[in-house]
Amino acid sequence: MSTALVLGNGNLLVNVDDRLQVTDFYFPHIGQENHLGTFQNKLFFRINGEFAMVNHHDFEVDINYEQNSLVGKSILKHKNSQLEIRFMDFVVPNEPIFIRNFEIENKNSHDIEVYVYFQNNFAMYEYDIGDTTVWYQPGKSIVHYKKDRYIGIGSTDKLYQFTCAARTDNHNRGAYPSLESGELYFNPISNGSVNSCVSYKFNVKPGETVKSNYYNICGRNLEDVTSAVKVLRSPSTESLYGTTKNYWEHWVESKIDNIFDTKKQYPSLFGESSLDKKIFNLYKRSLLTIRTQIDNGGAIIAANDGRYLKEGGKDTYSYYWPRDGASIIMTLIDAGFQELSDTYFEYAHKLLTPEGYFFHKYYPDPTSDSYMVGSSWHPWVDKCGYAQLPIQEDETALNLLAVWNHYEKFGDLEFVNHYWDSFIFPMMNFLGNYRYTMDYPADSMEDHISGFNCNLEKHEFNAHFAGSKLPRPSYDLWEERRGISSYTCATVYAALKAASRLSEAFGREDFVPVFAKFAEEIKSGVEKHLFDKDTGIFLSRINCNPSTNQCEFDAQMDASLYGLWYYGMFDINDPRIKATMKAVEDRLVVKSPIGGVARRENDFYHKIDPELTGNPWFICTLWLAQYWIEAGKPEKAKEYIAWAVDHADSTGMMAEQAHPHTGHGISVKPLTWSHAEFVNTINRLKKKLS
């Protein structure tokens, strides 16, 4: 099942798939916890005595959003009965409440008996041990709970039946209606590994439309459920639907007007009304989608799609990566979202180590006293037992650059003053020192773990690059290879330039030339060590093998080489950049009818076709569009922008990658970074055209 709708408010996030089943349910933080980790909440029907599942065999399924809003608008047409069922799904903007308003219209000439079922398969705190599901009479709701996580389930109208069960009950169907009668076996409580089901029963006359609703209320105790039910019954769920729709329309239009100077017309980007309209709609959908992936505590989550768990995996993308977060917040800063930027830095600064760097990734909870470091595959020692930092340095560099972007955009000197000692200067100091300077202490045997059969006298990176002024080794942009990468060098260069400018803004004139000099030293090191004079292009990275004491200059093409011009290290008209970007385009555009741009040559991640260099990635395709925009060739950029538009799905969701033969999204969906790069690309195009 593929995510079709993402609905959220910063505390509650609900994913709905292309069969209208609820697949992910995050509360109280976006990305933490998913109370449907390995399960899904099911919607199905019984129509004139026959069960009907939401699939293309039983229904014509049309799932979409209300335009410019975070409200689902979906239609199911039952093939055998001329019954049309319409769903309006939304999360209330200021309450942790998910509502599914629905209406059933009979377009037949005779009465139709309809049962509607919602089976609830919550596993509180992400594991299905010690849960309870119970009918809670004061709230007239079924409640699933464990510890201080409560989800109330019901309707402001009259339910027909309900039941609670263990998952193994009823021939392992759990809370499920009788196959013969469609009735639910009444059971008011169950505990352990549990589920529940509520049902509605209607006799719909010809030409008649009946309406009802279903809700999920999140809270920390029974009183929260009771209070929320009262709120729901006061304005009506139809009124809340209108309020939610209008809220998100205003939210996105307020920023669109600032950027495009229009609320009603599609901006002329390429002079092609059909394409311009599609671009503008996807631009707005991307902003809304990005917002659903941001916790109200500030964390920007990479992707909240539990498909890996449901397929038997043991981890997710539901973490804050400082790389993704900084890249995305810079796009939002450019679009004018100061309130999101303020909250982001309030969260991010708590995670920085005293030494001034970020770890790999983090949980989103901003209230924890600890770092809340997420799972990682970055070790503290290399394969020979030498100590190393488990970091990718670009994550720190990008956050320092984002600080400068925030100040440059909003002119908030108080912001710089507030974060200077605890956030800004520690990053500046780390990035300036974590380089191959002559006075940087070499790794000693005291940092070495005995028992490894490498027999090296000293660490190989120091031997090869002492005095080069390049950044010391860390993991690359893709988190897989440790070495000195061009992308990391470019981000550190930009961050040190930003450090110089921030020092000037803060009144530390003594730091201004120091950090500017550090940046230029890195640029010189890149020209000396990462430019291949034989081919005339830059290399993606230098990989060093501690077990052989050999350094390999990686000639594989990598889309991240765009960073050399994007972050200002080299002019876009530099012949070396032109040659490098030509090589990126020649070697990474996927040679299939689908096209798009792979992230690097011979990419193994989710690889579909061994004959192709890799799958196309949305972000990499958009990077090439950005290059052609900045190079003054918007017609070339149009090809790659149109590719992104064409391969977003019907509801505007962009995945991490696309299938190289079908074009369908693969890996997680939506990927927040994909949507951010689309917004970034269109912002750059608009500025260039202006």
Automatic annotation (TrEMBL):
Residues 469-627, 637-682 form the GH15-like domain. GO terms for biological process: carbohydrate metabolic process. One of its GO terms (molecular function) is hydrolase activity, hydrolyzing O-glycosyl compounds. The keyword Coiled coil does not apply. It comes from the Bacteria. Keywords: Hydrolase. The keyword tRNA processing does not apply. Pfam families: Glyco_hydro_15 (PF00723). This is Glycoside hydrolase family 15 protein.
